[in-house]
User: Fold these one by one.
Assistant:
Number 1:
Amino acid sequence: MFQGLCTLYAFCFKQTAKVIRNLPSYYIIAYHYIAQGKLRDDVRGLVTRPMVAVKNADYKELTGARLKQLRVWIVEKYLDFVESIWPCYCRTIRFLKRANLI
């Protein structure tokens, strides 16, 4: 257990040293990203636009579309269920015909 802890400590130390060595390049990348306005554009694209889209959403239309999707999903699940039972149903009918019960 002591050996495992020492190995984990050495691994963490190596990773920290690697990050510290690369810190100047990370700083340069972040500086150019912020200075060129890409950060502002990304915030607009990922935060502001979705909020505006939610505010402008037509809830009746959205609910109708979701209900249509739900109906399609239910029909697909029902057909899957019927198709999975169909062989048992056919065998049962065949058995009842042979036994002269139908």
Note: The chain has a mean pLDDT of 86.
Number 2:
Amino acid sequence: MMQDGGQNKNRYLLAYFCWRTMIGLNEEIRYLMQEAGHARCIIDAGFGRIKALYRRTDCETLSDLENVVASSSTTNEAVLYKKPDGTSMYEWRVWKTFLGEQFRALKGRRSYQQFRFTSESPGIIFF
């Protein structure tokens, strides 16, 4: 699999958005990215708060980690994949495999910051 300097995840995200419009889950999706080097955002700040509290906390169990996330900020919320009884809260899918087989990578995607997908033009990415 070809790596693209930290942007490989965007290959699969673009494919996922394309797939969602193709099967009718969304009529239109607009995906706007920040330019390279300008990636600070509120989400990064939330992870930073978790990391800072985690470093100062004795964290030995999943429950401890859940408490760290919840205590790190009023906006952070821990969402566990599995419940304490071991049952799954979500269906896990290997999207990279599925999307990698069904969709080609968009060449030069690192030079674009705006993408649009529509159910009227399934399988086409406007950028």
Note: Confidence is low (pLDDT under 50) at residues 1-6.
Number 3:
Amino acid sequence: MDDPSTAIPADPRRVPRCADDVQVVIIGGGPGGYEAALTAARQGARTTLVADRGVGGAAVLTDVVPSKTLIATAEVLDLVAGSRELGIRDADDGAAPTAETLDVDLDAVNTRVRRLADAQSADIRQSLVAAGVEVLDGRGRLDGPDRVEVSGADGETRVLEADAVLLAVGARPRELETAPFDGERILNWTQLYSLQELPEHLIVVGSGVTGAEFASAYRALGSEVTLVSSREKVLPGTDADAADVLEDAFARRGVTVRSRSRAAGARRTADGVVVTLTSGEEIEGSHALMALGGVPWTSDLGLFTAGVRVRESGHIETDRVSRTSVRGIYAAGDCTGVYPLASVAAMQGRIAMHHALGEAVSPLIAAQVSSAIFTSPEIAVVGVSEQEVASGQVRADVLMLGLETNPRAKMQGIDEGFVKLLVRPDSHTVLGAVVVAPRASELILPYTLAVAHRLTAEQLAGTSTVYPSLTGSLAEVARQKVLAGGA
């Protein structure tokens, strides 16, 4: 394993010394692909991006951008549901508005979702063209270690010589043979945005990030929601305290969680769907969302011919500067199985191009990657987890502070959530953090900086924060370590 503190030099045997002489070909238009293309082009390389599922990839067109746009609408309804405590009343009858008193036009919501996704895709394409990237709409595959065959959308086939190739082909939703997607009643997460009416009863199969986010969002939108989880808790692998808060939030909002239950299949009925559990029990609903993870799009990519090693799961093997087993071929994003995060894909793509074009680069450091789950409330994490501390893998003190003592939280009617800090006992260096709160995805940044730059609890505690603000709790929890005198 490479030392994360040491920059890895480029391979001078692979690419010409002058970037102008380098031909870079990128297969895949998602964050890993388009960020890599922008990086390579701005360094002067002749860059071609081959996108067969649209510029922006799944992240922009069918996954991250659409889902977070939908969730933004759900957040508004969630705020309305809590407005009674804030003294907000209907102007006509004086009653407190609730989410149930409002109608959701799902067709209008999804029209907006698709429009924003298309606009983001167009913006990215414009940026690529402005940077000098040649964008080809079509399917790319390796034709050896330094050639890419492109089957264009126009039916033409081109072969491109390449000094460096980046594979950023992403992943597709996993499908059960016993629950084939039909795009109408049995859906994967890319198909939700074609719905014109709100599901009366949505059965969500899978309690990972995707399942939890859509269960939270559709309940806020007004659907009855049943979440089928094969685990004891939702969000397996996530901070246990955070999962507890979310389960409590689900219970208060009326999401039915069927824990320790595994789906055997799903079938359509005359006016709905039935999900069958392995126990034989059947759950009836109007729609089913199968959120069972992703499968890398690595078949028929010419990997075997080129000599690129692939794991049993189908993911491409890479090191921390995105190199595959073949010199000059790199990979980034969900097809590598490193982290299913758009931010990580983009970082992998940039690192790959810096390395390929002759720059020494710092490898991807997993402990410095922050991530968020866009439920209500949001959950954001970075660095070492409490589970690693409990198992003895890492020595750290765990500091935790609930938001119920935060004055801004009281003003906004926030009654759930916390901040958690993991600190090295001797040096007081910040090793990890968890934030559970509205906009936790924004609040995690100071802790990510602290982990990346090895700041101490004292430095966090001594940093000025706005009063009143939720960020005040980010510093306040660090003071627990300072006041304890290092004990």
Note: The longest strand covers residues 134-142.
